[in-house]
Amino acid sequence: AIVAVSSGMQFPDGTSEATATLNVALELKELLLKDGYNVLMIREIDDVQLDNIARTVLANEYADCHVSLHFDNTAGGAYYTKVPDVESYKNMEPVKSNWQNCDKLGDCLIQGIRDLGEFPINGNGSVEMDLTQTSYSTIPSMDIELGNSSIQLSNQTYKRLAEGVFN
User: Side by side, which strands form the sheet with 78-82?
Assistant: First the structure.
């Protein structure tokens, strides 16, 4: 079967990336709501078949910013996906109008996790990557990898990662 949303990588304990990111997202949602933010969740259950284009369209229409949470299957730690440093790409709309705010958002998200001092950060905290989300977003939009498959998953881990992103 073809699905629009992959469950992503799998952790050693059998937890899917989709489940782990949803757990962090639900914790983050509660923190944001308590602080007075309005929150639009693209998904709050496992079975949501919205691809990256649909997610970007919804975010562009209804949100002030878009944060997509993930875990990476590489050896590095947390990072955000930075708009590639390619002049032709950075001069293409809507990237041209948004890439600097996307980078600021990513820097802030990683700094919040870095400040916890509990989770590894991949290099300087960013990896250049051309993504649908940042290529077509008309708002600050960020894909953040919260860590890799070696992270020890627990309710406390989900809460702490959410606190880092929130901060």
Answer: 66-72, 141-148, 78-82, 121-128
Is residue 82 within 8 A of residue 129, CB to CB? The reply is yes
Both tokens of 151, joined, read: 């992270």
Report, as an integer, the average pLDDT of 69-73.
Answer: 89
Q: Is residue 46 scored above 60 in pLDDT? A: yes
Please give the residue that has the higher pLDDT: either 59 or 7. 59
Handedness of CA 89, 144, 113, 148 (dihedral sign): negative
69: left (phi over 0), alpha (psi -120 to 50) or beta: beta
Q: pLDDT value at position 1?
A: 52
Token reading at 118: 């509990």
Q: 66-89 as b/e, with b when 16 or more CB fall inside 10 Å?
A: bbbbbbbeeeebbbbbbbbeeeeb
Q: What is the pLDDT of residue 74?
A: 78
Residue whose token pair is 């993504």: 131
Chain-centroid distance of CA 156 in Å reads 19
